[in-house]
Amino acid sequence: MDADLQFVVATLTGLDDGQLHALIETATSVPQTAPGLLAWIEGAADWELNRRRGFNYALPPPEAAIPPEEDADSLVATMMLRTPFAQDAPAVAALFDAMVGLLGGGEQRH
Question: Do the beta carbons of residue 99 and residue 4 sit within 8 Å?
Answer without folding.
Answer: no
